[in-house]
Amino acid sequence: MKLKSIHSVYNQDRLAKPIYNDLGQTLLNSGVILTDKMIDRLKNKGVSYVYIEDASTEDIYVEDTIHGKTRMKALKTIQGNFNTISNQMALGKSVDIDKLSPSFSNLVKEILLEIQSKKEVISMLSEVVSYDSYVFHHSLNVTVYAVALGQKVGLNQSELHDLGLGAMLHDLGKMGIPLEILNKSEELTVEEFDLIKSHASIGFDMLRKSYTLSLITAHCAYQHHERLDGTGYPRQLAGNDIHYFAKIIGIADVFDAVTSNRVYRQAMLPHEGLELLYSGAGSLFDEKLVDSFAKTVAIYPVGLEVRLSNGEEGVVAKINAQLPSRPVIRVLKDKDKNRCEKDIDLSVELNVTIIACETAIDQYKKVQ
């Protein structure tokens, strides 16, 4: 299979992986032959990349980081609970988070078990067709990225559980922000951006009242937008005043935000998202954590079309778990553009590098 920008997919191309709706249910299954109408619908719904069947790469397959059933259950739980909280807030009722916390806790345990059972690096390109459900998918994705990074840096099981809960609930305060502001495609006014920034404090105020959740969970919501140099919000904390878990979630939060399609910009590819993190390493983000994150995620996803420094072109065939930035490449064209087929392991061929990827990415405008 090949990973293609939705803008490079053509009529009669055949899907190699399913497209999901906002609850994780299959909308278009693998094997479906795409029509122009389907492709236009996917573009309008915000899908950036799809996997397409291809004869030269038919033996290349992408394993899901978490099982489809787990993802569907997680999204239903997050969406159901978040909507309950949103409705309570709209009615002016106090939010009893303790009634909902057991389901969040059990969900984090399931996700942890799946991540710990796999040796592969994390790869989660968005294949979802709804902007309005972004917060739910984002909460799940940030949880997966955060606990995977936490595991990489050596957190114990109890710490990973608390980190996972903090990640899953980090954007809970956005349930108090109108969707028309969260999904606004035009530039936000100062007042609107201040309202969005208030989600960190709103989430903290809800979570700190819990008798069943650790206070750390509340501080993850409070601090995930704080930055090392003091330029974050809401309290402009700096350096070691920011909780370690909030630093982890801050990295996972930004990475998933920029690699997900939004109403106001298209998604970056993972290596572009990582470059953004590295541009702020040491000033905005903990440099050691960014280094560890680079070893946790698939920087170049399987199926991605790439161009190499030796002039050859091909597709990422396999991720080297110990060195994700140096994958195995299925070369399909030699330097003279003649068809060929061979595999080259960039973790062995150190004189060859990836110099370009297929991309239809607009420069991101903002990251909430």
Topology:
Elements: E1 2-5, E2 19-20, E3 26-28, H1 36-45, E4 49-52, H2 68-90, H3 101-116, H4 134-152, H5 157-168, H6 179-182, H7 190-197, H8 199-207, H9 215-223, H10 244-258, H11 270-279, H12 287-294, E5 305-308, E6 313-318, E7 328-333, E8 339-345, E9 354-357
Antiparallel strand pairs: 1-4, 2-3, 5-6, 5-9, 6-7, 7-8
Helix pairs in contact: 2-3, 2-4, 3-4, 3-5, 4-5, 4-10, 5-9, 8-9, 9-10, 10-11
Give a description of the structure.
- With 368 residues, the protein is an alpha+beta fold.
- It folds into three domains: 1-61, Molybdopterin biosynthesis moea protein, domain 2, CATH 3.90.105; 68-294, Hypothetical protein af1432 (Orthogonal Bundle), CATH 1.10.3210; 304-362.
- The protein is 39% helix and 11% strand.
- The chain has twelve helices and nine strands.
- The chain has helices at 36-45, 68-90, 101-116, 134-152, 157-168, 179-182, 190-197, 199-207, 215-223, 244-258, 270-279, 287-294; strands spanning 2-5, 19-20, 26-28, 49-52, 305-308, 313-318, 328-333, 339-345, 354-357.
- The protein has a five-stranded antiparallel sheet, with no helix packed on it.
- The protein starts with a strand and ends in an 11-residue tail after the last strand.
- Residues 360-368 have low confidence and may be disordered.
In short:
The protein has 368 residues and is an alpha+beta fold. The chain has helices spanning 36-45, 68-90, 101-116, 134-152, 157-168, 179-182, 190-197, 199-207, 215-223, 244-258, 270-279, 287-294, and strands spanning 2-5, 19-20, 26-28, 49-52, 305-308, 313-318, 328-333, 339-345, 354-357.
